[in-house]
Amino acid sequence: MRRIEQTPPPPGPFRPGFWRSPIRGPWLTSVFGLVLLFGIPVLFVTGALSYAAYNPGLGRLNDQTPDKGLLGFYLFDWPTHPYWLYRLTQGVHVTLGVVLVPVVLAKLWSVIPKLFEWPPARSAAHALERLSLLALVGGVVFEFVTGILNTQLYYVFPGSFYTLHFYGAWVFIAAFIVHVCLKLGRMTRALRSRNLLTELRTGLDDTRPELPDPDGLVPTASAAPTMSRRGTLAMVGGGSLLLLAVTAGQSIGGRLRGTALLAPHNREPGSGPNGFQINKTAAAVGINPAHVGPDWRLEVHGLGPMLVFTRTQLLAMPQQAAALPIACVEGWSTPDQHWSGLRLADLAALAGLPDAGSVLVESVQPPGPYSSVVLRGNQIHDPRSLLALRVNGADLSLDHGYPARIIVPANPGVNNTKWVHRLTFRT
């Protein structure tokens, strides 16, 4: 290690004099870090709840991460009450993730000299800190980039988004916890070193560098300031508020839906009873009229012989109604739509399993992710869980799942299977 310390740093960003911003220092870094200290855990928890909502414990059809092992320790039966639960948790997850982008970028800018320290490791403790920083920076970039690309429908990474985002989240949160443990004391001292209100009253002409710090964030030879700390905080905070304004409406709905300029699904796709958002069209997943024409039948399997129904027969049965939204992993959701059809609980009773513990729902959609899904017993027996045949007083459109689709309270949209042709109830 002594030989490494005596080696002069290579030219460029490894040289101490390369980084000269007079506002970079422990205090500003700690302000951004404090925001992330509260924001990142909320992101992680809401993301973990989203994973639980897919009910991966029910088997491979629902589980995009079959090798999760101990990482699935917290999984629980996803509830159906309140019916807007997934709309809330996933809306918070996506909106907060977008809003934190300026803070993450500012935090990375504030600590960029740490990424070019020389020598790379001075001791075992320093090496651990550097490794945690590498995993932290790599993890935060990977999670934010994959998440945002997925919400914008431009996901280009190889492999399943769910798998990569899930494992990436655990790597990132582990590095985050290690980093917090290593830096919490320093962050607390740095925040106490300056008064926030004083900094907010300090303009460009009075901006001075912080005192030299052991982390090397304060430049050894600073340049003249081009922006005050007040201006930096205003720029980052303003950027976050702007992103909030152009994103949150896709989850909140109402008049704010029109302000969700960054949300691909913020626009109403047409008018009329079926004029609300969809994720994928029938054509996009390979559904054609032959799949759902006059020959379509619903098969219901259970304890006794298979039951077969035409759509006309289903419509002739007593119809039930429920007002439920659709909420997607991409963060968008619809207002409550008024669905009508048959209760899953009633269909389970017809199949001879009134106390069914699960149901396998299969679509006429060609095999692929979420063409089939398993629902839990509590989802079956909620009176608002329907095999929907109509919406807002009209027949389902083909894109909304004609001739029949699932709608379940608090269920991720992709698990509300469309174009259903078979229900298999199980004990």
From TrEMBL:
Q: What is the lineage of its organism?
A: Bacteria, Bacillati, Actinomycetota, Actinomycetes, Kitasatosporales
* Gene3D superfamilies the UniProt entry points to: Oxidoreductase, molybdopterin-binding domain
> Oxidoreductase molybdopterin-binding domain spans which residues?
294-426
GO CC, sorted alphabetically, is: membrane
Q: Does the keyword Transmembrane helix apply?
A: yes
Any GO BP annotation: respiratory electron transport chain
Q: Which UniProt keywords apply?
A: Membrane, Transmembrane, Transmembrane helix
Among PANTHER family, the record links this protein to: BLL0505 PROTEIN, PROTEIN-METHIONINE-SULFOXIDE REDUCTASE
Q: Which Pfam families match?
A: Oxidored_molyb
What is the protein named? Oxidoreductase molybdopterin-binding domain-containing protein
Mind telling me which residue stretches traverse the membrane in this protein? 27-54, 92-112, 133-155, 167-185
